[in-house]
Amino acid sequence: MIRAAFGVSRRLVLLAGLALGLAAPAAAQDAKPIRIGFQTGEINVLLSYALGSGLFKKEGLDVSTKPFPAGPAMLPALAGEEIDLAWMGEFPSVTGYANGLPIAILFMERIDATNVRLVANPKAGIATLQDLRGKRIGVALGSTSHYHTLRALAQAGLKAEDVTLVNLTPSNMPPAYVAGQIDAAFVWEPNVGAMEREGAKPIANTKSLGMITGGVWVGRRAFMDGEPETMRRFLKAWDQAQQDYKANPAAVRAYDAKRVGMTAEQFDALVEGQSVAHPTFRETLTADFLGAPGQELDSRLMKHLQGIGGFLLEQKRIQAEPKDWPGLFDTKPIQAYLASASQ
């Protein structure tokens, strides 16, 4: 009797183990695939954390990432359905939408007050915006860098013709500065910080010029509309990443610090210099960002994007401004996530 009972118990244990063994592949098969594009030359604290800590995996996502040197390079990948979501600046998002790509901004991931800075070489005699006359300024034409530069010149009573604009990618600005090929540059971290470490001095930034800028998550409409469960899991993971960042900034920053090859102290200084804010999803639906449904045109972010549209048209980067500006925003996934989270 005892031996028989032992045999039954053993079989039950084996069956239980088999059931557990089968459960893992089932869970793996249930993982939702999502392809994410990101900019290698940008600081992206929360994305690095969500990837490196396994947060996406925990929420049932099978994430594959594809690096890009800058936002505009992601547009063909979105058009070719090579990626589903992309982290980029506002400029490529407006460019792609205005040129007919079926994409939309999901939310503004971060807003930067001092991340984008105009730095100048003191040896070139530049201490104020007025001193830029006749100088060589490194800019990425058609981008946030270019837009900020023109605003700075206007504030100083100068025009583009009063300076020499040198078209450079952000990563090429520090070498050009060190080589003495430019006197100043308007760009973002980590490249602006690299020039400051070489002696460049900041003389203007987004906040001082009365502007706004930041990073946005953009998605293919077909994906966002067709994969509601995948979007819910992505937003849940991102929501958790935001909460973790508030609770333990050092632990969350460690992942992106490692990616860009900085010590914790160096990376902390960089992030503090950005003056970054990460809007919550509820804040996303306010007038400061995407606005409430039906009120998108009244939002501060929309007015900012419309200003970018006018600039891009003037620079011949787009053929016409979008006729349906509200269509650039898609808050349905966030609304659905918040509704599910409150249940």
Largest sheet: 6 strands, mixed
Mean pLDDT across all amino acids: 91
Helix content: 40-55%
Alpha-beta classification: alpha/beta
- What's the total count of β strands? 11
InterPro entries: ABC_SsuA_sub-bd, Solute-binding_3/MltF_N, SsuA/THI5
Subcellular location: Periplasm
GO biological process, one term: alkanesulfonate transmembrane transport
Main location: periplasm
Description:
- This protein has 343 residues and is an alpha/beta fold.
- The protein has 15 helices and eleven strands.
- It has helices at residues 2-29, 45-52, 55-58, 74-79, 90-98, 144-155, 173-178, 191-196, 221-226, 228-247, 249-259, 264-274, 281-284, 300-314, 332-341; strands at residues 32-39, 61-68, 85-89, 103-112, 117-120, 136-139, 164-167, 184-187, 201-205, 213-220, 276-277.
- A six-stranded mixed sheet has the order 2-1-3-10-4-11.
- Helix 2 (45-52) crosses helix 11, helix 10 (228-247) crosses helix 15 (332-341) and helix 11 (249-259) packs across helix 12.
- The N and C termini lie far apart (52 Å).
